[in-house]
Design a protein that fits this description.
The complex is a heterotrimer of chains A (428), B (422) and C (173). Chain A is mainly alpha-helical. Chain A has 16 helices and 7 strands. Chain A has a 3-stranded mixed beta sheet with strand order 5-2-7. A 3-stranded antiparallel beta sheet of chain A has the order 3-4-6. Chain B contains 16 helices and 9 strands. In chain B, the strands form 3 sheets. A 3-stranded antiparallel beta sheet of chain B has the order 1-2-3. In chain B, helix 4 runs antiparallel to helix 5, helix 5 packs antiparallel against helix 6 and helix 6 runs antiparallel to helix 7. In chain C, strand 4 and strand 5 form a beta hairpin. Classes of the chains: A mainly alpha (428), B alpha+beta (422), C alpha/beta (173). Chains A and B meet through strand 1 and helix 1 of A and helix 3, helix 6, helix 7, helix 8 and strand 6 of B. Strand 1 of chain A pairs parallel with strand 6 of chain B, so a sheet runs across the interface.
């Protein structure tokens, strides 16, 4: 069968000699002529890609070729020269995509709250197994990891080929120098994202660790700012403004909420978010402010959220640790409340506290809670709502379980929440 | 006894190495099957096989390889020789088996791309092309025109550099040391510089993505390519002139390792080996993929099917590749689209199904068979490696020749062990 | 010589080789996930041939239809369906798309007649299938392992081959 092809011919190659040679061996000499030409040409330098003769040896290491921008050898991490913040946020994209799985990292955590922060704590790359594919640089959404041009990495020490963040860090100016066009394409987006990330990094987390002076300088800055700050640290007002909180404010808020929950669990009635004693000044202020607000709300509500809290707390089900914490929080709350309410009437507070009746029905609880909600700040609302829901559930459970629906039996020294109960009893 | 002048080509003495001797297919004894090899045996020195009683010779089984400078990688041939003449040859593979297919089942489709580079490590762009095509077929991703042109450009440059290197290694195997190899390597260096400019690495390019290529050609690429094209004809002519009419080469290559046309297809060989045997099957023309149907180029075929034919076919293919690249340079500025399909996701999750895509890689038909189960990882990933299949007739091509010819025949098949063993 | 599409091939083969063409039952491919959407079953559009008749079918392709070039024999291990599927790919040198024949054998007794006597090129394909999956090709002249060493036990590419640990290396780990 004959095969037909389009746009071309089927060409049978000619075998044998093209020109008739008079003597055998002339073909050899013809080839030698080619070699001769190359040899004669080897006394001058090669002119470029359009020249096939000439010497084009790079006398390495004295003479080095200029590597193209896209050249990729091993990955490096970038940090910003000015702010000295690393661009890496530990999003794990490079770790996921790496085919030989040589990238490992851990995310930085905020020491105060324990929440993850967009910065990287440790970063390890095993250079010996890296296949230089460049995927990590391709997928990085923050342009933090890029491919370096350095290829003279031979070492006799195998351990050295597992490189850590300190050795991987390079300033952006370095990358700009080796790959200007590629950096120019992504610079704006990367810097914008970096600014956003810097805002979310508390303290000096995320700064390149080798820049010790800069880190020290920044620390000093932050401390100065904290000391000088007085009223402005009113984080309780912050949420109402709708602006995002700084990590410190977030920490304060979280602490306040935790305390409130603990207090509620312990059967504490009116007490909304209260910061544990010994917190930063900002926290205490927040706590105090919140306590005042709660008191006001309580006064407005007048027999408000007392029932829900008391109506059958799942006291018996709370594990011992929680009980302890609840107790502590309750005591603190009480103290704080007393301090806060010093100026005004402590009586209503106590009366309300004393009026904690165990046998309030869940619907009443719900109503009371909503009444209380109307007056308090959103943070308190949330806490109160949460407490109310918990109370409802607890009441339902207690109704089913039937035990003492009394106030927090956590301390054990509680009489069933009679009106004459002391503060301690009611609160604990 | 043969003394004096060698008549060329040599007639086959009767009785030597007939197919009914321990031969046939790898130990297969005679069967009444229509396929039979009648290969012309090499010249005899007149002594050994005809007269064993005189010299009390016996057959010896020796290894060529796996550590051998001329076996193109870790490749072992178990040869049974009688003196210097090969009675039987069995290739033994597996020394570079890296379990590529099973590793690929653990990686996502994108993570497999750098592993395909390392299959036929000499021509990484061709591997990328075949794999990208297979995944695109499976997932239904389209490739814009400009990206197709860039891909074809890269593969044709790969073809030139593969043939330059392969011929150099062949000539080296013949004993002419590395003259042609060095000249070929010098041009290869230029093309590798181009690859470095475009993709970032010389050999393990990892340049192709699903839906296109990873980044567009940098501005300094085209001027350099045009410079290269200026010198390309001179280069190929020089390579040809160096050794084409060289009497020693002709003696060592003509009539050696003949693969007859009728058998070539039955042996499933592809690429220059098939075309050297006279079968004009080139996938770029037979089943055009990518944008190959827009270019004019010829398909060189041989007539006899020996080492010399394959040598000539490869040189001619270099010229045709240069023709294609010139047409690309002309047509590329008018190509529409970007360098990658912007809607193509690299973390593909193809629908359940299978797909096979094959390309004309410089060594033959390189195909990827992918089966997807809907997850981001392939369920089955099979590579149809040309070098592996082209080794099928090795035993039969070598029977009756000398040990030195085995090396030459192996060099003319042009294998790379990364593909053979995967 | 006609260039056929898979449906046409199936029709012609069903007509000319009775009993060879089987129904292409849907395959589950992967085991169904515990929750979430179930992936669609895989229904192939290629011709499925009975294992005992593969040689006839292949010769039919070569002699009657002109598809003389056997390009590839691939094996897929469908663990969830309990079969091995062998995919034979044929092309004609006049060009164009190829034709595919698929053979399904049960995983416990995978035996298929070998194509090697007619297509010497199938030799290495079948040896690879034997080595990696354990499929026994009857009438193969030299069915030995090709990648692994001869004494190796186990079929590495099967889906139930353990990927961790190795009784040769690390068995004591």
């Amino acid at each position: 069968m004959t095969v037909k092809i389009e746009r071309g011919q089927i060409v049978t190659v000619e075998r044998g000699k093209r020109t008739a040679r008079r003597l055998p061996g002339m073909g050899l000499l013809d080839g030698m002529a080619v070699v001769w030409k190359h040899w004669a040409g080897s006394f001058r330098k090669n002119q470029g890609f359009n020249d096939i003769h000439g010497v084009f040896t790079y006398e390495y290491p004295e003479e080095r070729p200029k590597l193209p921008e896209a050249y990729r050898n091993m990955p490096i991490l970038l940090y910003d020269d000015e702010t000295s913040h690393e661009l890496c946020t530990s999003c794990f994209q490079c770790e996921r995509i790496c085919p030989p799985q040589v990238i490992h990292m851990t995310q930085a955590k905020d020491p105060a709250t324990g929440k993850p922060v967009p910065a990287v704590a440790e970063f390890v790359i095993e250079y010996d197994a890296c296949m230089s594919c460049g995927f990590c640089a391709e997928v990085c959404p923050f342009d933090a990891i890029k491919m370096d041009h350095e290829f003279e990495l031979s070492t006799a020490d195998h351990q050295k080929l597992t490189v850590f963040k300190e050795q991987l860090n390079r300033p952006i100016s370095y990358y700009e120098r080796i790959a200007p066009t590629m950096w120019a394409e992504v610079r704006d987006g990367a810097m914008k994202k970096l600014q956003g990330n810097i805002k979310r990094r508390p303290d000096v987390i995320g700064m390149a660790p080798n820049l010790a002076e800069k880190i020290a300088a920044r620390r000093r800055e932050l401390e100065a700012a904290a000391a000088a700050a007085t009223a402005p640290a009113a984080p309780a007002a912050a949420p109402a403004e709708g602006r995002k909180l700084t990590p410190e404010e977030k920490a304060a808020k979280l602490a306040a909420i935790k305390a409130a929950n603990a207090a509620k669990k312990a059967g504490d009635t009116v007490e909304p978010p209260v910061a544990p004693a010994g917190a930063a000044p900002a926290d205490e202020k927040a706590a105090r402010l919140a306590a005042i607000r709660a008191k006001n709300a309580a006064r407005k509500g007048e027999a408000p959220d007392a029932p829900p809290v008391v109506a059958g707390e799942p006291a018996g089900e709370a594990p011992p640790a929680d009980e302890k914490a609840a107790r502590l929080a309750a005591i603190r709350a009480k103290n704080a409340a007393r301090k806060a309410a010093e100026g005004s009437d402590g009586a209503p507070v106590e009366a309300n506290v004393a009026a904690t009746e165990p046998a309030a029905a869940p619907p009443a609880a719900g109503a009371a809670t909503s009444a209380a909600e109307a007056a308090t700040a959103p943070a308190d609302e949330k806490a109160a709502r949460l407490a109310a829901i918990r109370a409802k559930n607890a009441a339902r459970k207690a109704a089913g379980g039937g035990s003492d629906a009394a106030a927090p039996t956590t301390t054990g020294n509680v009489d069933s929440g009679g009106p004459g109960a002391s503060d301690d009893a009611a609160l604990s | 006894m043969n003394t004096g002048k060698l008549a060329f080509p040599m007639p086959l003495p009767a009785g030597v190495g007939t197919p009914s001797a321990p031969g046939g297919l790898e130990g297969q004894t005679s069967q009444e099957k229509p396929v039979r090899i009648s290969v012309r045996r090499s010249r005899v020195d007149g002594c050994s096989t005809k007269d064993p009683a005189m010299f009390k010779t016996e057959e010896l089984q020796i290894n060529i390889g796996p550590q051998h400078p001329s076996t193109h990688g870790v490749f072992r041939m178990l040869v049974t020789v009688d003196g210097e003449t090969i009675i039987d040859l069995k290739p033994v593979f597996g020394y570079l088996h890296r379990n590529h297919e099973q590793i690929a089942e653990q990686n996502t489709y994108l993570q497999n791309m750098p592993y395909t580079d390392r299959l036929d490590y000499f021509n990484s762009m061709a591997n990328n092309q075949a794999y990208a095509m297979a995944v695109e077929k499976l997932a239904g991703i389209e490739v814009p025109e400009r990206a197709e042109y860039i891909r074809v450009l890269m593969v044709e440059l790969t073809r030139i550099l593969n043939h330059a290197g392969a011929l150099g290694f062949l000539i080296n195997d013949m004993g002419m040391w590395q003259t042609q190899l060095a000249f070929g390597m010098r041009e290869r260096e230029k093309i590798l510089d181009l690859f470095e400019m475009a993709s970032g690495a010389r050999m393990m390019c990892n340049y192709f993505r699903f839906g296109g290529v990873v980044r567009d050609l940098p501005p300094e690429f085209m001027p350099k390519l045009k410079e290269l094209l200026v010198a390309m004809p001179a280069f190929v002519d020089e390579l040809e002139r160096l050794l084409r009419e060289n009497e020693i080469l002709m003696q060592r290559a003509e009539g050696i390792g003949i693969l007859p046309k009728e058998l070539a297809l039955a042996y499933s060989v592809t690429g220059p080996v098939l075309r050297g045997s006279g079968v004009p099957y080139d996938i770029r023309k037979a089943e055009p993929y990518s944008v190959y149907d827009r270019f004019d180029f010829d398909v060189p075929v041989g007539s006899v099917g020996d080492v010399y034919d394959r040598f000539l076919v490869r040189i001619e293919e270099m010229r045709q590749s240069k023709r294609i690249i010139e047409q690309i340079v002309e047509q590329l500025p008018d190509a529409r689209g970007g360098h990658i399909n912007p809607r193509a996701r690299q973390n593909v999750r193809p629908p359940v199904g299978d797909a096979y895509a094959r390309i004309e890689s410089p060594k033959g038909e390189l195909g990827f068979y992918l089966v997807s189960d809907g997850s981001p990882r392939p369920y089955r990933y099979k590579v149809r490696a040309p070098s592996f299949i082209n080794l099928t007739p090795l035993g039969d091509m070598c029977r009756g020749y000398k040990v030195a010819d085995v090396v030459v025949i192996l060099g003319s098949i042009d294998i790379v062990m990364g593909e053979v063993d995967r | 010589m006609p260039r056929l599409s898979p449906e046409e091939l199936r029709e012609r083969m069903a007509r000319d080789l009775p009993g060879a063409v089987l129904e292409a039952t849907p395959l589950r491919v992967a085991p169904p996930p515990a929750h979430g959407p179930q992936p669609a079953p895989f229904v192939t559009s290629d011709t499925v041939v009975a294992a005992g008749q593969i040689v006839e079918a292949a010769l039919y392709l070569r002699d009657t239809l002109g598809y003389a070039f056997l390009s590839d024999i691939a094996v897929v291990d469908y663990l969830a369906d309990g079969i091995f599927e062998l995919v034979y790919r044929f092309y004609t040198i006049e060009g164009g798309d190829g034709l595919v024949l698929k053979v399904r054998v049960p995983r416990e007794t995978p035996e298929v007649p070998s194509l090697t006597p007619y297509w010497p090129g199938a030799n290495l394909h079948e040896r690879e299938a034997f080595d990696l999956f354990g499929i026994v090709f009857t009438d193969h002249p030299y069915l030995r392992r090709i990648y692994m060493w001869d004494e190796f036990e186990g079929w590495p590419m099967r889906k139930d081959f353990p990927k961790q640990g190795d009784k040769y290396i690390g068995a004591e780990e």
